[in-house]
Amino acid sequence: MMQIFLNGVYLEEDAALISPLSPGFMYGYGVFETIRVSGKQALFLDQHFARMVQGLSVLGMVCPYHETELRPSIEKLLELNGVSEGFVKVVCSKPTPKKQHNQEADILILTGTKTYKAEYATGLKVCLADARRNEFSKIVGIKSMNYTENILEKEAAVQKGFDEAIFLNTHDHVSEGCVSNVFWVKDGIVYTPSLHCGILEGTARARVIKKCAEFMIPVQEGAYGLEELLSADELFLTNALMDIMPVSLLEEKNFDIGAYQVVPQLRGDGR
Length: 271
Fold this sequence. Notes:
Layout (H helix, E strand, L loop, with lengths): L2 E4 L2 E4 L10 H5 L2 E9 L2 E2 L2 H14 L8 H15 L4 E8 L12 E7 L6 H4 L1 E10 L14 H12 L4 E6 L4 E4 L3 E6 L2 E5 L9 H12 L4 E4 L3 H5 L3 E6 L3 E8 L2 E2 L7 H6 L4
Parallel strand pairs: 7-8, 7-14, 11-12
Antiparallel strand pairs: 1-2, 1-6, 3-4, 3-5, 5-6, 8-9, 10-11, 10-13, 13-14, 14-15
């Protein structure tokens, strides 16, 4: 039985109790972070914690733990569950009003073992989402628990034989994937949608932009149409678990990932 961490207590998963009347349960009122684990360590926890705190502030809540308190709690949970490679998920949700103290959120931490390996060699197959990303939404820029639309579109993509789906926004500009940020390369320049296109500012996205600066690879953030993706030399997705993932197919457009030059350079290991 998997152990979880709930409001300061380590419990077996079936012993966890969260009020069904809490706004977190009733409305998805909260935020979450999915953090890659390697060598029994939660990677880039500082980035994830900063984003979580910012997201909670949008929702009028605060995290009950500081980053320095959260790290040992995560490490102990990883040890209890025997997870050395995989992920840890931190969920902060709004409790019932009578329970909430000083705007503190309920906090739940759980672990998993999902990793990406074979996909780097084959690349992902990607389609377009049927739904549009609302770039005017108040929660589009935070990692909200309101994630049903993303899951529905990803499940629909898988049913059609794809791995991921990319949203366009209400202005027909490329936005983001269901669980990823989108990048492409054209004539040696890396492009990615700007935050104004209705995207989550991914932690891996920020690291890619920083890597490009280190390698003196020009990066342009802006509003781009689908034709920009279809004419790209390289296309790749990013998130905390997959890091930098090449795309081999976008709808009916094939990409030769064996000819990619920028993606292997950014990955730093020839993949």
